[in-house]
Specification:
This protein is an alpha/beta fold. Helices cover 33% and strands 18% of the residues. The chain contains eight helices and twelve strands. The chain binds S-adenosylmethionine. The site of S-adenosylmethionine has 24 residues, from helix 2 and strand 5.
């Protein structure tokens, strides 16, 4: 496949387009614009969500969503069907922010690879998390209104004027007009989506002719090119168990290996998939990859519980103690820089033909 030309952010002052309609499905969507009432709650420190809106039902709903659901000593999202497998607490938000920095390094300081029109009008980020990607894109493209959607109200309050967040479940039907966005982006929707073909079809319907959808994700398979990691390494075992458990839950971690197929079936053209090696620790000699590996090691050591607790408990019935015991070896092997392991990060970028 051909290389995708690198998008160069062009900060041209252009009239911001008229506001988008309320997000996904009308009344159920909650705009994340309220004053923060949860400053004392570390899980939502910095969140713009859950403030004063009129109507007691809305207040009850928004505070329940803001509180989240406690399980296994972690806080999970309360909005949507409560099936998202990772927590949304402060520890997890730190991990997501660090992972954002790692992606930027891996993609050579780019936020995405799609060669979009340099003066886009509307950009959508699905499962935006802490919203850093959306904020960075809004800064890089002042011509665009950037919208980030998430079930969790964990986005910051102070954002560029052309960036906003809404709380919604992207698995529901979207009510934006068709052909609305110059770019639809989603990154690391892990343990999140049960029906990828439906999600990708919605991306197709809502991408403008000539526009792009780009999906980025870490692939669940681990590689070792030189045999330095034994087959019984804790990380290999974790990768196998995580793939099986996620499949049992109907949220398979290997869905990202089928993105290109889903996108082609939906009608997109010019599929370009690129893969980048992501070392699991600081084992590479090359400076940039060494740093990426150091980030990823931290991500794994700190984040592997977040990934595991709900997933292994729901899929296998393992207790929190059993899961933590299993993870002891995973963490130990992750920190062994003699084991030259890596998964790939994949970016899959597709286009809609002009005149479609
Ligand atoms: C691993 S985080 C990735 C966040 C962000 N995309 C990034 O790469 O920094 C996945 C995000 O998807 C959100 N999410 C999961 N299921 C969702 C759904 N059905 N609708 C909207 N957001 C969802 C989660 O709340 C979480 O913030």
């Amino acid at each position: 496949m051909d290389d995708v030309p690198v998008p160069v952010p062009v900060p041209v002052p252009v009239a911001v387009p008229p506001p988008l309609p309320a997000a996904v499905h009308g009344d159920d969507a909650i705009e994340a614009e309220f004053q923060n009432d949860f400053e004392g709650d570390s899980a939502y420190a910095g969140s713009s969500y859950a403030g004063s809106v009129s109507g007691s039902l809305t207040e009850t709903l928004s505070s329940a969503v803001a509180r989240g659901v406690e399980e296994h000593g972690r806080t999970y999202a309360a909005y949507g069907n409560e099936e998202y497998g990772l927590p949304i607490d402060e520890e997890e938000l730190d991990r997501i922010d660090m992972s954002h920095a790692k992606y930027i390094m891996l993609l050579d300081k780019k936020l995405f690879l799609a060669p979009i029109n340099p003066q886009p009008q509307r950009i959508l980020d699905l499962g935006t998390g802490t919203g850093l990607w959306a904020i960075n894109v809004a800064d890089a493209f002042p011509s665009a209104e950037v919208l980030g959607l998430d079930i969790a109200p964990v986005q910051p309050q102070w954002v560029p004027a052309n960036c906003r967040f809404e709380i919604d479940d992207i698995e529901q039907s979207w009510v934006f007009g068709n052909a609305t966005f110059d770019l639809i982006h989603a990154r690391d929707l892990l343990l999140s989506i049960r029906d990828w073909p439906k999600l990708v079809s919605q991306c197709y319907e809502h991408t403008k002719p000539g526009g792009y959808t780009e999906l980025q994700c870490v692939l669940p398979h681990l590689h070792c090119d030189d045999g330095s990691a034994p087959p019984n390494s804790g990380l290999f075992e974790f990768s196998r168990q995580a793939q099986d458990a996620s499949t049992i839950l109907g949220l398979p971690l290997d869905a990202c290996t089928r993105y290109a197929d889903y996108m082609t079936a939906a009608g997109f053209v010019d599929v370009v998939e690129k893969r980048f090696k992501m070392p699991t620790s600081a084992w590479p000699k090359e400076k940039r990859l060494k740093l990426i590996g150091a980030f990823e090691m931290h991500n794994l050591v700190k984040g592997v519980s977040a990934m595991s607790l709900r997933m292994f408990n729901k899929a296998y019935g393992w207790s929190r103690e059993q899961i933590e015991m299993f993870l002891t070896q995973v963490r130990k092997d992750t920190q062994n820089v003699r084991c030259k392991l890596y998964p790939n990060i994949s970016t899959t970028c597709v286009r809609i033909l002009m005149g479609s």
